[in-house]
Amino acid sequence: MEHKKTYNAMELKTKHGTVVIEGPIPGKELQELDFHEELTAFRPAPQQHKAIAEIADLPEGRILIARSQNMIVGYVTFLYPDPLERWSEGKMDNLIELGAIEVIPKFRGSGVGKALLKVSMMDDSFEDFIVITTEYYWHWDLKGTGLNVWEYRKIMEKMMQAGGLEYYATDDPEISSHPANCLMARIGSRVDPESIQRFDQLRFMNRYMY
User: Fold this and answer.
1) What integer pLDDT is reported at residue 207 of this predicted model?
2) Best CA proximity match to 184, nearest among 206, 171, 200, 168
């Protein structure tokens, strides 16, 4: 599968000033930008800054950012699923994972997350891919937002829907371990029926196990 990356951008006006939503951004450019210290949902900010720069340089890797002047205040990552997850077992070169999306607290509720997904999907090459995301409540900032798991999940679903991702059922044990966890996906318009069938098989791998 050829990995074309077409740069897109838009400006988003928020009450805290204009944010530029853009990408995919190459690793070198990401390293030259400042990375906000509150982007810590997955690991400490300096380590996450380094990690996204490495993802950006993978053949399939894409990083789109929300930038306030020279400061990254949000980002979204796309890359092949982790080899330890079931989603990699189908060895599908046209299945890509939205691995992380994060926005600093100051800009939450300003539409930054939705804009990141909208700009991501402006790239026509996503029509050749199945894009998945796995939502686990233990990654959510319930404490910082004061929301319960269901309120937070509703926000996550709405945000993902802005990028065309929909809810899909699965028997994946980690997702099934809590009813708020979920799988969402977007199947590109040029994905062939055989790939869709393989994706369905990955979603339900336990149906014949007793």
Assistant:
1) 66
2) 168
For the domain made up of 8-203, the CATH class stated in words is alpha beta
Please choose, from the candidates 195, 198, 80, the residue with its C-alpha nearest in 3D space to the C-alpha of residue 127.
195
- Three-state SS for the chain is CCCCCCCEEEEEEECCEEEEEEECCCHHHHHHCEECCCCCCCCCHHHHHHHHHHHHCCCCCEEEEEEECCEEEEEEEEECCCCCCHHHCCCCCCEEEEEEEEECHHHCCCCHHHHHHHHHCCCHHHHHCEEEEEECHHHCCHHHHCCCHHHHHHHHHHHHHHCCCEEECCCCHHHHCCCCCEEEEEECCCCCHHHHHHHHHHHCCCCCCC
Diameter over CA atoms, the chain: 56
- Condensed to tens digits (0 to 9), the pLDDT of residues 136-154 reads 998 888 888 899 999 999 9
Backbone dihedral region for residue 130 (phi beyond 0: left; psi -120 to 50: alpha; all else: beta): beta
pLDDT above 50 (res 17): yes
Return d(Cα 125, Cα 40) in angstroms, integer: 30
- pLDDT tens sequence across 96-110: 999 999 999 999 989
Task: Enter the pTM of the model.
Answer: 0.93
